[in-house]
Structures are given as C-alpha cells and as structure tokens.
Amino acid sequence: MNVLWYATRATGEVALLFLTIVLALGALSAVRVGGRRVPRFVVAGMHRNLTLAGLGFLAVHILTTLLDSYAPIGLIDTVVPFVSAYRPIWLGLGAVAFDTLLVLTVTSLLRTRLNLRWWRAAHWSAYGCWLVAVIHAFGTGSDTRTSVFLLLTGGCVAVALVALAWRLTAGGPGHELLRASTAMGAVFTMVVIGIWALLGPLAPGWASRSGTPPRLVAGAGSSEAPASSPSASRAPSASLHGRYTVYLDFTEPGRARFTGPGGEAGQLSLDGRTIALGTVDTPRLFTGGARADEEGRIVGVLRDATGGAVTVRITLSPTTGAGTLRVTPGFGAVADEDEEGGE
C-alpha cells in the first residue's frame, strides 16, 4: 500500500531527526549548559520528552513497516537483529538501534536509582545508537537518493559532530589524548560511512546487493534487477497494461509514481517531450517521445532495449499532482495517430 510506504519513510526520517536532537541535548547537559536563564532540569526535561516523542515516531515507523505487505518483515525482526529475510544486515542494524534506544530511555527514567558512573557509561552508547540508525536508514531506505533525505541526513550528521566536538572540548582539563583520539575516530568513521554510502546505497543495483529477496527484485531484461521500494515490487514490462493512479513527486521535478489496483507499481518521469517508464532503481526501462492530445493528455509510445513497446496516456492535475496513467502493450492508437499525421 503506497500510503504505508510513505508513512514508513516519513516517520523513520522524523525519528532520526528526534534522535539527533536528543543526542545534542544530552551533550549540552553533560557539559552543564544552562545556568540561571535555562536551568539544567529544563534541559533534562526536554531531553526526556523529546526521547519519548522520538520513540512514538519510531513506533509508528515500525507499525507501518509491519502492516505494509511489500517486504517480508515480522514483529520478531524489529527487536532481534539480523534474522530478517529482507535485507538482514541493514534491517538488523535498525533493530540494534531500537533496542539500544529502549535501554537508554529506561535508564533515563530510572536515573535517580542508578549509579551515576554506570549511567554515564551507558549513555555514551547514544552516539553508537545514532550512528547505527544512520547506517540503517541508508541500508534499508528506498529514498536515499532524494534531495530531502540527503539534506536531512547531512544536517543530522553535522549536528551530531558539533555536539560531540562541544562535549569533548568543554569537559574541562584531563584526558586530552583520549578526547583527541575520539574526535579523530568520529571524523574517520563518518568519512568511511560517506564512501560506503556512495559506493553502496547511492549506487545502482543496491537492492540486489543489500539482501532483498529475489522474488522482490524486479526483472528488467536479466535474472536480477534492483527493487528498493513498493514502487518496484512489480517491474513494468511489456506485459504491463491497465489503468494506474499517478502521484507527482514534488521533491523531484518531472517525476511521478504510479500504483494499480492489482499491486502493480512503478515510476515515470517527464522530461520535456520524453517519457521514461520503469522502477525506482531502473527508471528508464521504457523510453519514448511524448505529446499532448486534444483532450490535454500526455501520450506516447515507449520502447525498451529489446524492442518491446507500450502505449501510454497520462492525465495529471497540476494543482493536486494526482492523475491517471493508462498503459497498453504494443503500438496502440497513439502510434496510428502519429502515422496518420505524418502522411
């Protein structure tokens, strides 16, 4: 269900945002930021409340993932790491982050009953929890190439690094070597993750390499092709036909997603007088020219690499971004009209 997919992605990114803010507040509290104008108990209260709010979004993120039938993810997969049939490593890291966040929340609520030294040692794991959550978002996300995701994640990384630097430099004298080593290790880790993201999740074919079950990997002229979202659960092919609902992606000009009553889904893009039809990871399975007919529809005949063709008719509302897509295998009436016009 498309709504569930959007809800899963949105709540996951909001949960990461909350986790980053909580991480920053924890660092500020640790170096005793506050004073008379902002008492420390206020910072601590914000830290606790935002943690609970982040857990709420995370709960919705998990719930929508379980309700969405696209990927074979069960309840046990959300708490037991690395047992899922769907991208076990990257989904397992999400379970690790969730379990760690639960422990951190419980220890925060029981802070007055715990040894302060042990409590502080446990809460250093918040940085690891945040880092694992970022890797999970890249490894399992199907919108990692969108500008919104990259800007949000980049901002969270910047905030986390600044918070860590603040804590390391404002903690008073002593342990300089340990602090310098921690800072260098943090920068090195982020560089390694950045290189991994460029070569992995941000590169073509990640769906196949990340552990997506073969039955979910879209076929596009080979035994395997990437499929990283519900939009790729059934690959557009020469057999694709029928009427679909189209939703414009306002974060990517000229790009839209479509879904059908039978679960068929995919992506199309409109670039000037060209239409491309395909999956999220392989958006140009079919390409061809486009024109507007007398009724204001966008029409065209698209061909794939093997010579197969489909005829498309697109009706879109510029205000709502929604519309319909009708796909007919082969050369339909559009091709006949073009030939008559050429004579």
Structural account:
It is built from nine helices and nine strands. Mean pLDDT is 79; it is low at 218-239 and 333-343. The two termini are 45 Å apart. The chain is α+β, with helices and mostly antiparallel strands and 343 residues long. Strands 5-4-3-2-1-9-8-7-6 form a nine-stranded antiparallel β-sheet, covered by helices on one side. Helix 6 runs antiparallel to helix 7 (176-199). The protein is elongated and about 75 Å long.
Write the layout of secondary structure elements.
Blueprint: H1 2-30, H2 40-67, H3 88-109, H4 116-123, H5 125-140, H6 147-169, H7 176-199, H8 206-209, E1 242-248, E2 255-259, E3 265-271, E4 274-278, E5 286-289, E6 291-292, E7 298-303, E8 309-316, E9 322-329, H9 333-342
Antiparallel strand pairs: 1-2, 1-9, 2-3, 3-4, 4-5, 6-7, 7-8, 8-9
Helix pairs in contact: 1-2, 1-5, 1-6, 2-3, 3-5, 6-7
Question: What's this entry about, in short?
Answer:
With 343 residues, this protein is α+β, with helices and mostly antiparallel strands. The chain contains nine helices and nine strands. Strands 5-4-3-2-1-9-8-7-6 form a nine-stranded antiparallel sheet, covered by helices on one side.
Q: What is the gyration radius calculated from CA atoms?
A: 24 Å
Average pLDDT score: 79
Helix and strand element order: HHHHHHHHEEEEEEEEEH
Number of helices: 9
**Most strands sheet:** 9 strands, antiparallel
Output the structural class: alpha+beta
Beta-strand content estimate: 15-25%
Distance between the termini: 45 Å
